[in-house]
Design a protein that fits this description.
This protein has helices spanning 15-22, 28-36, 110-118, 151-162, 241-248, 271-278, 309-318, and strands at 2-5, 40-42, 45-46, 59-62, 68-69, 81-84, 88-93, 128-129, 132-133, 142-148, 167-175, 182-191, 199-201, 207-219, 227-234, 285-293, 300-304. With 321 residues, it is of the alpha+beta class. The longest helix is centred in the middle third of the chain and has 12 residues, at 151-162. It is elongated. The N and C termini lie far apart (67 Å).
Length: 321
């Protein structure tokens, strides 16, 4: 329970902002939810008006209910933790791990693993003891992902993703070599009208999607490379964005079963390379770097992840072409 009084110099502020400024760890959206739930008292009565302008001498009592347990149950799934502190955790996710529970994946997800790993260090997101997932990676995409452990971190990270200030780059093995070697793909992406399980570039509707790419290496014939390794930097974060954009420009990602990275394209490669690609069982896409402003001190932090073993093996055989 918190008892707070407005000082002589603080009159005129909105109640939700004033409370969030005076109670560490509670975001403004969480304060608004507590107001609506009747957890704030003023002059002996509940107050639910977030826009109320506080006056010098006003006193408020705010009660924070006990955290509810998250619906998913904790599961002891091994995690590669790149960084962890009181506010957030950065995970180097392996291919094959689903981020969030959904139809067909109600168990064994990253959320279940984080519930077990973080335990009581989760101070709750929106009143529920759970990790705050602010972005996702596809099941078969490996690499770096950040999750919030507190309401404050969740709001701060979500704001950075919304304003596209988070620095994210991916390594992608694609068929052929895009021209030019460095480019910017700017389209709109929405659900495919022919297959609701897939995304597609849309002439209208959908949401703006921007991917910047550069070729890091070419493999095969110098005039007509069979495969290229790209670095892709996201300005937006739409579902399947890199996979859709690479297929859209005619250079789909190796091993991508949904967007044209079929095995038939591998016939021009040496048998050893064909064997490695056939054994991937996933798109050759890795979230290699992640940078953002830390919610605790607003300082920029950055993390990097090397290619996992399967993609490192792919690189080795391609370099021998």
């Amino acid at each position: 329970m918190h008892n707070l009084t407005v000082s002589e110099t603080e009159g005129g502020a909105r109640l939700d902002k004033w409370l969030s400024d005076h109670i560490a760890g509670l975001s403004r959206s969480r304060i608004q939810a507590l107001l609506q739930a009747g957890q704030v008292e003023h002059r002996g009565a509940t107050i639910d008006d977030a826009s109320y302008r506080v006056k010098p001498g006003d006193s408020f009592r705010l009660t924070i209910p006990a955290l509810l347990d998250a619906a998913p149950q904790a599961e002891a799934i091994p995690l590669h933790v790149a960084h962890e502190d009181s506010e957030l955790i950065v995970i180097d996710k392996p291919a094959g791990l689903v981020v969030h529970p959904a139809a067909g994946n109600w168990q064994g997800t990253l959320v279940h693993a984080l519930l077990a790993h973080c335990g009581d260090s989760l101070s709750g997101i929106g009143g529920v003891r759970r990790p705050g997932i602010v972005h996702r990676l596809d099941k078969q995409t490996s690499g770096l992902l950040v999750a919030a452990k507190t309401d404050h971190a969740h709001a701060a990270l979500a704001a950075q993703f919304a304003e596209h200030s988070v620095q994210r780059s991916y390594l992608a093995f694609v068929w052929g070599a895009p021209q030019p070697a460095t480019g910017r793909i700017h389209t709109r992406i929405g659900r495919s009208p022919s297959n609701r399980q897939k995304m597609a570039v849309r002439p209208s509707g959908g949401r703006e999607a921007i991917t910047n790419y550069e070729i890091l290496q070419r493999f095969g014939d110098a005039q007509k490379p069979l495969v290229s390794l790209l670095r892709c930097r996201l300005e937006t974060g739409r579902t399947h964005q890199i996979r859709v954009h690479m297929a859209h420009i005619g250079h789909p990602i190796l091993g991508d079963p949904a967007y044209g990275g079929g095995r038939s394209r591998a016939k021009g490669l040496p048998p050893e390379a064909q064997t490695v690609i056939a054994g991937l069982n996933r798109q050759a896409l890795h979230a290699a770097s992640l940078g953002f402003r830390h919610p605790l001190n607003d300082e920029t932090v950055s993390f990097s992840s090397p290619l996992p073993d399967d993609l490192a093996a792919l690189l080795q055989v391609l370099e021998r072409i």
